[in-house]
Structures are given as C-alpha cells and as structure tokens.
Amino acid sequence: MRTKVKLIHGTDGITVEADLVELAQKHVIDYAGKWKEQLKLHGQEDKFWDWEFKLQSMINKQPNREGYAVEYESDTQGLMLIETQMHGSRLSEGKRLIYVDGIASAPWNREIIQSPPQFKGVGTALLAFARNRSIELGYEGRVGLHSLPGAEEFYDRQGMIDLGEDEDYDDLVYFEYGVRRFLEERSQG
C-alpha cells in the first residue's frame, strides 16, 4: 500500500509529494535512532511512546490495529496508529469510528523544535488518511482521538470537535470529526 500525500517545505513553501505507507520496522528504527533523543531533549509529550511495541504487539498481532508512516526521500516524517473496530462515536451514538491511538510528526517537522520546520502538513496528511480509511470501512469519515495537551490547538485547527476532558483517559481532551462537517468539506474540496 502506497498513497501519495502532499507536504509543504517549511523554508520556501514549495509542495512536495511524499508517500504514506504501512508502518514497518524501518520506521520504528528511524523513530528510535533519529527521533527519540530529540523528543526527549525538547521535552515533547510523546517522548516515551514505544513504536516498537506498537508495531510488534499491536499492529502485527491485532487485526483491528493498523499503522502508517509518511516518508519523503526514505526519511520517516510521521507515524500513526489507528484502531478500526472497537470505538464508537460520541457525536453519532451507535456508529463506529476510526480511533487514532497515536500520531506523531518527526521532531524536525515541529515548529516548537525547529523553526521553520522541514515540512508542514504531516499530521494533516495522516488525519486525512484516517478519515478516508473511515470512509472505506463505512464509518462516513468519523475519526476520534484523545489529544496530548500540546496538540489540542492543532486538532482545533483541523476542524475537529472538542468534546472536553475525558476522566477515563487521564483527563485528556477528546476530539472527533463529525460526519456533516466532513461531507461538507468533501463537497467543497
């Protein structure tokens, strides 16, 4: 599986075409070798995420888990883990959604670490893919996630609906894409 996505060079605004692919060991190695120390150094909230565990114990062993990576010129630019069968919408009771269990952009793509970032649009591309995957599964574009505090503004900008803190999930704010908004965006697209 290989899907083309557009990223924007942070320095000159030029759009480039990157690949969105299934998460593989290469991406986990890139995370451990190229990302992790930078995330720790800059105190990022996802610095302790274990993508090796996510790949080996979740994606490779649970058919309802899928992992994806964004690559540009063989460098891993972003990672995402989704759950496809067990989560329900809070906006549309009784309807399933894609649950984003983890989404991360490479340290050099985070404005808080590098300004300007190497690439903009990595998280946006991953979320758009999750919405399209939701369509493929018959979930009408519904996607939900719990946000780390430092990413809440990003999800607001993406047009996700803030449904407040979830006491059952470490008081992280839960966000969800509504179907109506998604269908409106697709028709304008």
Walk me through the topology:
Elements: E1 2-9, E2 15-22, H1 25-41, H2 51-59, E3 65-72, E4 75-83, E5 98-105, E6 119-120, H3 122-136, E7 143-147, H4 152-157, E8 161-166, E9 172-177, H5 179-188
Parallel strand pairs: 5-7
Antiparallel strand pairs: 1-2, 1-6, 2-3, 3-4, 4-5, 7-9, 8-9
Give a brief outline of the structure.
The chain has helices at 25-41, 51-59, 122-136, 152-157, 179-188; strands spanning 2-9, 15-22, 65-72, 75-83, 98-105, 119-120, 143-147, 161-166, 172-177. The protein is globular, with a radius of gyration of 16 Å. Helices cover 30% and strands 32% of the residues.
Q: What does the model show?
A:
This protein has five helices and nine strands. It has 189 residues and is of the alpha+beta class. The protein has a single domain (2-188), classed as Gcn5-related N-acetyltransferase (GNAT) (Aminopeptidase), CATH 3.40.630. The model has no long low-confidence stretch (mean pLDDT 92).
